[in-house]
Design a protein that fits this description.
Elements (H helix, E strand, L loop, with lengths): L4 H13 L8 E8 L2 E8 L20 H14 L20 E2 L9 E2 L6
Length: 116
């Protein structure tokens, strides 16, 4: 099937927009669809350092968010989870949430509030 050339150019431009003096010194960005893989390696490993390569290693402080995001997107792709689905279906403790409007508990309203 392959990738759309214009889409890959936009992907590279967006990735490059995050590299610079006031941003990150370098990054490796990857997009895959089936057996097709496209990788962008941009910038340097450190300010004034060696160039980033496809195989460069990066220190990551916490993997919780990336792993959770990858797992969530896999569930979305398989049709088991919708991005706009209420969290209460999978996490019952988050069902029937209420928003506190004042310090008195009687003034709490259901979340999300109904639109008028």
């Amino acid at each position: 099937m392959g990738f759309n050339t214009d889409g890959l150019e936009r992907f590279g431009a967006v990735a490059a927009s995050h590299v610079g003096e006031d941003k990150v010194p370098g990054l490796v960005a990857l997009v895959a669809s089936g057996d097709d893989v496209h990788v962008e390696a941009l910038g340097t490993l450190a300010v004034g350092g060696r160039p980033v390569e496809r195989t460069s290693l990066f220190r990551i402080a916490s993997m919780t968010r990336p792993v959770t995001a990858a797992a969530t997107l896999a569930l979305v792709r398989e049709g088991l989870l919708g991005l706009d689905e209420p969290a209460g279906r999978l996490l019952p403790e988050l069902a029937d949430r209420r928003v506190l409007r004042r310090m008195e508990a009687r003034s709490a309203i259901p979340f999300p509030p109904k639109l008028r």
